[in-house]
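for the writeup, i need someone to sanity check this before i put it in the appendix. the sequnce is what the collaborator sent (i think, or maybe the updated version? ugh). structure was predicted straight from it, no edits. if anything looks off just tell me and ill rerun, i have time this weekend
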Amino acid sequence: MAKKKTVSKTRPGRGADQFIVRLPEGMRAHLADMAARHGKSMNAEIVTALVMHIMRDGEPDESTIKSELAELKEGIKLSEEGLIQMSKRLQAGVIGLENLFFDVRDVDLDVFISDQRGQGVSLTRTEAIRKILRSYLDERGYGHANKKRPGS
């Protein structure tokens, strides 16, 4: 006879109590944005908000507290994973910039500055390096010109 697996639930699943809520226009999108920022599902974000509201109104029961703690632990785990990924991306960016600076050392800045002067642009060595760096970043989609502006 096959052994039946028992699963310990730390948070409510699909069999939990359900309640349909009619949201005002725009609130669903706002909740989706909040949930994404917090690394949660929309359901988890709504439950967290309700628990916080209930806690302000009085003492929540033990199962509510345990459920909320489980959600918070999951959120912290997601945040740690996000921070690790962000750290790796930043480290790769730093390595790329270090390589670029080593490449800039090999550039004949005096010739570049002379060419720019021939085009009517007078640059110091620092300004020349900045211009080269901006051009490099723009070409790869990281420059100021490529940033999204609010509402666009």
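Residues 4-9 have pLDDT under 50 and may be disordered. The radius of gyration is 27 Å.
thx in advance!!
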